[in-house]
Amino acid sequence: MTSVESVRVNSDRDSADPVPGLVEAAAAGDGQAWAELVDRFSPLVWSVCRAHRLSVEDAADVYQVTWLRLLENLNRIRDPRRLPGWIATTCRREAQALLTRARSSVATESERLDWLLGGDVAADEPTLTADQHAVLWRAFDRLSDWCQQVLRALILNMDKQMSYPQVAAELGTRPGSLGPTRGRCLKQLRKLLEAEGI
Amino acid sequence: MSKERRPGNGHDEPVTRLSDLDDEQLLAALREALGASDPPPSWCVELAKESFALRTIDAELAALTEDSALDGAAPARTRARADSAPRFAVFDADSLNVEIEMTPGSEAGSWQLVGQLTPPAAAIVGVRRPPDDQTRVTADNHGRFMIDQLPSGPLSLAIEVEGRQPIVTEWITVG
User: Percent helix, strand and coil across chain A, each rounded to 5?
Assistant: First the structure.
């Protein structure tokens, strides 16, 4: 494992970011590149769908239409680095369109907004807005690979209730360094969020 | 950004910014945003991958320019789901307009689609649905066509008029 204690923000993403190449290859007909784009951004699309509190069935429709819209626009993506924002926006619009169709026509704009923002959210339902999802996702994507690995491992282990030594063992690092790394990575993430003004 | 609830359970006080969240709350928000707590179903992901077969390279894209389901000025028509008011949509390409009207079909959960090509022309109309369905119907000499028993879900039409560049409509969700 390299750069174990590193908490730098990736400053050389232009050369490291595979997304522009994947977009170009998919637009040229490479189905494998398309599959990699789907794998990479599916969690983002799905989380935006679910942030609108769509049922699984409705979320599945919005999820598919989002990918189909990207498919028909592959040749028109001018700046692939902004793809996460484009995807989140497309998905959000489609989700809102579906909600508009499904909702009673007498609902006012403010009622609709209240509903989206969650006035009476059940405890186990998503509580982030679609915008917040996209911003969090973008900020996370800008963290160093090591920070991303550590935070992902910690998140995945929230459900399993694993101890720090167990998580550290999975990551191949010292248990003592995990806490401080977690703190620094979250601090870095917070800085990126502040820069976004969110 | 207006006031939001904190991510995670049991926090009732609103916060204004994600960057104001403490470490635990920020991790909980990340968990939600990254989909770790709610990953997309694998069949959804596979379907999106297989839909690459629906990529078109030589067709002109007809943009959705009107959709009664999205038009706040026509509230009576925004309830296609809840009642039988038809939903109208218009797609515009340079050489052809496609108007469609959707009403609930005879079978529960199915839809009937009636379409009109302008200028009127006989055509082959491909009904595109993921991952690679290409059912075809014909438009008569007046440019009229009908699709019956259409299930809910994503839909795009591919219009082929003899002697012209093929046209595909933007994707919409039926239902």
Answer: 75, 0, 25
Is the preceding peptide bond at B131 cis, omega within 30 degrees of 0? yes
Looking at the complex, does the CB of residue A183 fall below 8 Å from at least one CB of chain B?
yes
Alpha carbon distance B171, B63 (integer Å): 9
pLDDT for A172-196, tens place per residue? 888 888 889 999 999 999 999 888 7
Please report, for chain A, the start and end positions of each structural domain, with discontinuous segments joined by +: 14-123, 143-198
Smallest CA–CA distance from A67 into chain B, residue? B48
Residue A98: per-residue pLDDT: 84
Which of B34, B43, B46 to probe the A interface (max A CBs under 10 A)? B34
> Min CA distance, A6 vs chain B (Å)?
19
Q: Is A196 exposed, middle or buried (0-12, 13-18, 19+ CB in 10 A)?
A: middle
CATH number of A143-198: 1.10.10
What's the pLDDT at A33? Answer: 97
Q: B39–A61: do the CB atoms touch at under 8 Å?
A: no
| pTM above threshold 0.95 | no
Model confidence pLDDT, tens digit, residues B118-162: 999 999 999 999 987 778 999 999 999 999 989 889 999 999 999
The residue that leads in pLDDT, B100 or A196, is B100
CATH class for the domain made up of A14-123: mainly alpha
- CATH architecture entry for B58-174: Sandwich (2.60)
